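During the second year of the project, the team shifted from modelling isolated chains to modelling whole assemblies. The rationale, set out in the original proposal, was that interfaces cannot be judged from single-chain predictions alone. As a representative example for this report, we include one of the complexes processed in the last quarter. Its constituent sequences, exactly as entered into the pipeline, are reproduced here:
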Amino acid sequence: MEQQAGQRFWLMKSEPHEVSIDDALAAPRSTVPWTGVRNYQARNFMRDAMRVGDGVLFYHSGCAQPGIAGIARVASTAYPDPTQFDTASPYHDPGAQPQSPRWLLVDVQALRKTRLLGLQELRAAPGLEDLLVLRKGNRLSITPVQPHHWRRLLELLDT
DNA sequence: GCCAACGTTGGC
DNA sequence: GCCAACGTTGGC
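Output from the structure prediction step:
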């Protein structure tokens, strides 16, 4: 991916049994709505800081082989997550009202699948010591990625 | 299944 | 505003 001025970078976690990088690539226009974010900090990143075209590291979590599995891009601005109003959804939020949505999402377009860059390898890689997702106890499903981390990760993914 | 870490809730 | 209890995340 070419770096553009003002472009920001993100790491976004998905449980592959829900939406994997393969699922995203197989979707129409390789684009999926990032449903189910129920954390205010992560929501605020989408609402306040993300822009169309931002780079995304597609991370598989909650699985046997956690790690970065692909590259994607932010494909929309933030809009209400419809699952918050859906009583049949596990993401239903009885406190959310259609007139005042509580939860937002962005569309994410998968660009390519990469080799699996696993957690162990991430932890061991020089230059990634401060990557937020590697912090002890980190549970945020969306974290900003510094440009120098992004460049380093792309190097690692291409080797 | 276990458990550390964190976020949210609700009584006070 | 404090903080204990509870629920969730996510690696192992």
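Chain A has one domain: 9-157. The mean pLDDT of chain A is 94.
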